[in-house]
Amino acid sequence: MLCYTSRMSAPGAAQPDHVPSRRERVRAATIEEIKATARRMLREHGSDLRFADIARDMGMTAPALYRYFADRDELLSALMVDGFAEMSAELAAALDAAPPDDLAGRIRAAAVAYRQFAKSDPSRFSLLFGLPNPEFGRHSQHTSGPAAGATMGTLEKLLRSVLDHGRLAPPLVRQVGPTLAAEAATAQAAAGARIPADAYQALLHFLAAVHGFACLENFDHLNWISEAGRDDLFEAQIELLTLAMGASLTR
Fold first, then answer.
1. Which fold has domain 72-244?
2. Distance between CA atoms of 140 and 50, rounded to whole angstroms?
3. SS3 call for 181
4. Which of 167, 174, 240, 247 has the highest CB neighbour count under 10 A?
5. Which of 4, 26, 25 has the alpha carbon at shortest distance from 207?
6. Phi and psi (nearest 5°) for 147?
7. What's the Cα-to-Cα distance from 87 to each of 48, 110, 127, 140, 228, rounded to whole Å?
């Protein structure tokens, strides 16, 4: 749970105004170009991402890249932070478009958005959730971890508005183990939220189920089922989650 319960620190409310200098604007633009090039190369060539290849593609020298990123791990960490931010934004947009008191509709909206995020850019999804590189982690431990936590925070919106409207029904599984109950209470206290332990557990069941489906599909472990068949299977999974999370079917 640690990966998903860390929260990103909110920016301070009283940040002094700062107009970026031309040098700062050029540096920021170069960083974005490096990241865009790296994302494209990940899509085209897979996980074997090398500074030398990025530099050659951009018409730079490899040592010049070290003025912007300490090493390859830091660049990958930056891409992961961006990826989790994009995931959070897409999930939030899907939930904002769903009726705030309609649990079944919000389950469907979040599930479809999660799957679509994975399918829209498989290389990005693989970077976020693929098998870890043994040499990677030094930077992601401190940066992409909180970013992943923010994604879980966005998912909590699935339940909070329904709870606020007094329409959050009990989930199918009510019993929560003592350790998970304590960790859920800690996570809720840190977030200033009040989702009951059994509903929080149901939300984690949702995450595990939808994420598991997305991983199986993204990593070609469901390619023995046709695309239309996978769509049918996903619809059935949404129905199962709708029942498990205590929502009545709206189909």
1. Tetracycline Repressor; domain 2 (1.10.357)
2. 18
3. helix
4. 247
5. 4
6. -65, -40
7. 23, 11, 13, 17, 25
Where do the domains of the chain lie?
23-69, 72-244
Q: pLDDT higher for 231 or 52?
A: 231
Fold of 23-69: Arc Repressor Mutant, subunit A (1.10.10)
Going by the DSSP 8-state scheme, the letter that residue 5 receives in this structure is H
Find where tokens 């998970």 sit: 180
CA 118 to chain centre: 10
> E-strand spans in the chain?
none
Please state the rounded mean pLDDT for residues 106-133.
Answer: 89
Res. 131 pLDDT band, cuts 50 70 90: low
In this model, does residue 152 exceed pLDDT 90? no
List all residues 6 or more positions away from 67 whose beta carbon is below 8 Å from its beta carbon.
Answer: none
**Over the chain, what is the mean pLDDT?**
84
Cα distance between residue 108 and residue 112, in whole Å: 6
- Which of helix, strand or coil describes residue 138? coil
Out of 47-56, 137-146, 149-158, 171-180, least confident range: 137-146
Q: Which of 21-25, 69-73, 136-140, 224-228 has the lowest mean pLDDT?
A: 136-140
Structure tokens at 181: 């109950």
Using CB atoms within 10 Å of the CB of residue 249, give its burial: 0 to 12 exposed, 13 to 18 middle, 19+ buried: exposed
How many CA atoms, within 13 angstroms, populate the side-chain half-sphere of residue 65?
24
Condensed to tens digits (0 to 9), the pLDDT of residues 171-181 reads 999 999 999 99
